[in-house]
Amino acid sequence: MTSQDNMSEEHLPEAAHGHGGGPVVTKDGHFADPGLPAHEPRRTDIDEKAARRAERQVAMWFLLSMLATVAFIASYVIFKPGPTHHVYVWPIGNVAPLNFALGTTLGVSLFAIGAGAVHWARTLMSDEEHIAERHPIEATPAVREQVFADFRQGAKESGFGRRKLIRNTMIGAMAMVPLSAVVLFRDLGPLPEQKLDTTGWKAGMLLKNINTGEPIKASDVQVGSLTFAMPQDLSEDDEDFQVRIAKDALMLVRLQPGDIKDKKSATWGYQGVLAFSKICTHVGCPISLYEQQTHHVLCPCHQSTFDLSDGARVIFGPAGHALPQLQIGVDNTGNLQALGDFTVPVGPGFWERSE
Amino acid sequence: MKKLSARRRHPLAALVVLIFALVVTGGLYAALAPTSSASADASQSLQVEEGKRLYQVGCASCHGLNGEGTSIGPSLVGVGSAAVDFQVGTGRMPAQQPGAQIPKKKVIYSQGQIDQMAAFVASLGAGPVVPTESQYTGGDVSKGGELFRTNCAQCHNFAGAGGALSEGKFAPSLAGTSAKHMYEAMLTGPQNMPSFPNSTLSEQNKKDIIAYVTHTTDSNTNPSYGGMTLGAIGPVSEGLFGWIFALGALIGAAIWIAARTPKAKKS
Amino acid sequence: MSTHEYDSSHEEQIGHSEAGVEQKHLGEKSADWVDGRLGIYNLAKANLRKIFPDHWSFMLGEICLYSFIIIILTGVYLTLFFQPSMGEVVYHGSYVPLQGIKMSEAYKSAIDISFDVRGGLLIRQIHHWAAIVFVAAMLVHMMRVFFTGAFRKPREINWLFGFLLLFLGMFDGFMGYSLPDDLLSGTGIRFMEGAILSMPLVGTYLQMFLYGGQFPGNDIIPRFFTIHVLLIPGIMLGLLVAHLILVFYHKHTQFAGPGRTEKNVVGMPLMPVYMAKAGGFFFLVFGVIAFVSAIASVNPIWAYGPYRPDQVSTDAQPDWYMGFSEGLIRIMPGWEIRAWGHTLELGVFIPLMVFGLMFIVIAIYPFLEGWITGDKREHHILDRPRNAPVRTGLGVAWITEYIILLVGGGNDLFATHLHLSIDAITWACRILFFVGPVAAFMITKRWCMGLQRRDKDKILHGRETGTIKRLPHGEFIEVHAQLPQEELFRLTAHEQQAPTELPPAVDENGVKRKVSRAAKLRAKLSDGYFGPQSQIAKPTVEEHAELTSGHGHH
């Protein structure tokens, strides 16, 4: 019986739509806009107690901010700066107490102002929605006509269109005057000329170990080892050290003669000691992630990988050409020396570069 | 021998070897540990002999019975005691399985046993020797920093956090590595790391680098002044942190600001 | 400034208007003085009670604005201590691991700010974190504007301003990252040298002029300093003001809903609600960033060491917003053309071009879409992303590409942290560079279509109530409740455009009509945007009526 009742018409799903009038429809057959719903009050709007509670909460935020500012100033005075001062803060680790204290107090003092203001707006300021009309941005046709008429009048009075001589010379002058500015930039730097083609290496220049500052004998460079070298005449105290080391830095490795696949590369070395530019041919990072078992050298910046046993050929990554090799030999005391400059420019490729 | 190598690939072989190794290790340790002070004055040849026994159990299957090397393990002739002390002392050897790179693991031998194996391997051919303490202490931190950035940071990262190499290989983190092991690694060039013999990086240079790395990887001497290190791996983790936590918190704040305050009565 | 003032403001207002004639408040008098000179009353009349709609995503732009202000405030502080000079000095300061090391004055002063100026480290970290948040927020803000179609007429120009702000913000960030002259930033400057050199014809000249000679020279840091603190921020400030003026002038967009039309804007007034909310938000943003700077280290330059061109650290990456360009360059194969004594370094130059392309598509998209749709009307009601499947798909495709490139830019870290091969990750990114965006587009579009279908279903059949009923003949059904009028209106408020149709190929006189190629392309694209495969016809009132009036069947 009861289940029969339940099955009466008005409990069927369709009934849910049908009764109650159905949706309101506009003349052109769309669902009509019911308009802005009526405003409903919040608790704080109708309950003075709730409003007072909200007021106290807002005030608490502002008070908290004041306290944090006092704490900030106190931290500034109390904690000492410098790398010798540190304190363990869980779970962050060992940190500078000054930075931690100043940051947290500043953070709280600012955040509390914001939180107070937003809470104030959300609970106590009116949340009634208002409607503002928009006005089309485009001008009315009358205004448009007026503007065009004014413009034509002005243009006519100036004679700009009619007096071609004035117009053309003025355009010429305006076009030329920025040239002065362009010219002024000429002294920003020198012309490239052949500067990128050469390095500081010259025939007979000894290779200097960058770590020890000593000349390098062939026997110093063992199979599997990695040695960095710079020209004998270069010192860290030189004024142009940075510019020169950016091109002259060398990487020395020694391979078993049988492992060297590239014949030319082998003859440019000395008893298996090979000297390659340390500057990547891609964009110039100091490439030096040497894997001694594979003889691969990897660039940490973009992973260009070169095979030092095969003339430093590119085997992976974005570099376009092999690392330049410096031809080396020994002088009469057995120290490694350059037999000349690199035969190709070191570092990243450029338009004028030729091989 | 042939029998052994034939059974080497048996599924249970590794287990058998491991159990055997553990039993032998434990037994040897029990036998040797109490008398370690006495064994200090034992003759060099006894060291070598004990080392050989350990070697034959734990290492010979890959490196050959006399350290001559096999298809899966390089020859140990001439690698010196320093290489053994590093490889076994950091747990890299004995290796679990061949791969792009043998990672560090739990050390399974006592220092006494490592010394014995080192003595045995050193007897196979002259090579770098385990350094004494005076060789790796007393370096200059700032000089070491400069040397570290020239020779090491390209693989191990500025803070010694490690980094990627090609084809799945990597430079490990240096945190927690002992001074002695750092010295040995520089001297011997384990796995794909190049070696830095004294002719390349003088003993003083090595001391300096060790001083710098020890200083840098210890948060007591090198605190992270600005807060969490975020792994000390540069801008990638900083960016991730900024997106997730900083921007995340701010979007949370925006949602709070724009959310409608609950109405008094709920229909 | 207490809540008491607010409570009684109503009475006060009344009080003023009555007593105003006899004696004026000091506040009123000074306001009169300013109005007499600047005419502020007319401005205030239009703007004091200006209406802003409430939606969390409309606050994203404010995060950008406030982090930009924070960057300027902290940046000015930093300039008081920073010395943008590449002159070499030997460090004898308080940080032991650098003592006796040669470094530039720029690096030394940045170290001193970190260790010897009280609060200097905090300000440096706030400056840097704020920069990271600034660009991230701009990107998210831009996504919101894109996916809701807020860039349509009349806001295309404001989209361009925003685009320029993003572009300049990124570059200014890059330069700021370069200034301390530490090992990481120097590597970035070196990369830039390589990128400039790769340009055909002009590369070497530009490089020499920018660096004042060969890399690194002595000029790049001071020059970047001027550009970083003066030139770019100046331009950005101008663009920002223009951007905000246009937001005020156009009035804010709003989502469809009851009472919201193309001709109005519904929300709350600037004074007091938005003054409190937006003003408060500034402090929230500043507070959060200050707190992050207290707990998380950013750019620990002392750990990197000073720059030397022969030194490098692995994990050499730019800040995240340049990460996608890093990805572009890392996944690029090493192509190079050498001919007639010249070298074209495609391995660098192609990524440089693609970098530009990824930005140009952002800049031109509103104009492209405007051309395809041929829509010349103003739009102030926002699209729901599902109702514009092609646009949404394109946006997601762009983001997918961006994320793939970010992963490519961090390939070494993904390799070490996920125990993968760096070569494998690079190859995966190379393939995904082409496949990823296409797949993302197709999936997103289908997803949007699915959501449109669901909306249609909801309108026609109502929402599921969760109540199960058994019919007399034994069938079980779930009771659906009809959507309220507000929902019906909201879900059908969007317009569905029909694709542009080309005129018949032959005109009424039987003469072949000439249709330009551009027109054909446009018709095709329009069909892609609005054809049946990219929109589900929204339910009509008739369909609805038919379904709801029918009895006994569903």
Keywords, separated by commas or semicolons:
heterotrimer; B: 267 residues; 2 domains; two-stranded antiparallel ribbon; 2 strands; 1% strand; C: 554 residues; mainly alpha; Cytochrome Bc1 Complex, Chain C; two-stranded antiparallel sheet; 21 helices; 62% helix; 7% strand; disordered N terminus; Cytochrome bc1 complex Rieske iron-sulfur subunit (chain A); membrane (chain A)
Question: Could you characterize the architecture of this molecule?
Answer:
The complex is a heterotrimer of chains A (355), B (267) and C (554). Chain A is α+β, with helices and mostly antiparallel strands and 355 residues long. Chain A has nine helices and 14 strands. In chain A, 35% of the residues lie in helices and 14% in strands. In chain A, the strands form four sheets. Chain A has a five-stranded antiparallel β-sheet. In chain A, strands 8-9-10-11 form a four-stranded antiparallel β-sheet, with no helix packed on it. In chain A, strands 1-2 form a two-stranded antiparallel sheet. Residues 1-20 of chain A have low confidence and may be disordered. Chain B has 267 residues and is an all-alpha fold. Chain B has two domains: 2-124, Cytochrome c-like domain (Cytochrome Bc1 Complex, Chain D, domain 2, Orthogonal Bundle), CATH 1.10.760.10; 133-217, Orthogonal Bundle (Cytochrome Bc1 Complex, Chain D, domain 2). The longest helix of chain B has 24 residues, at 235-258. Chain C is mainly alpha-helical and 554 residues long. Chain C has a domain at 51-321: Up-down Bundle (Cytochrome Bc1 Complex, Chain C). Helices cover 62% and strands 7% of the residues of chain C. In chain C, the strands form five sheets. A two-stranded antiparallel ribbon of chain C has the order 1-5. In chain C, strands 2-3 form a two-stranded antiparallel sheet. In chain C, β9 (463-470) and β10 (476-481) form a beta hairpin. In chain C, α5 (60-79) crosses α12 and α9 (183-197) runs antiparallel to α10 (203-211). The chains are: A alpha+beta (355), B mainly alpha (267), C mainly alpha (554). Chains in contact: A-B, A-C, B-C. At the A-C interface, α1, α2, α4, α5 and β3 of A face α7, α9, α10, β5 and α12 of C.
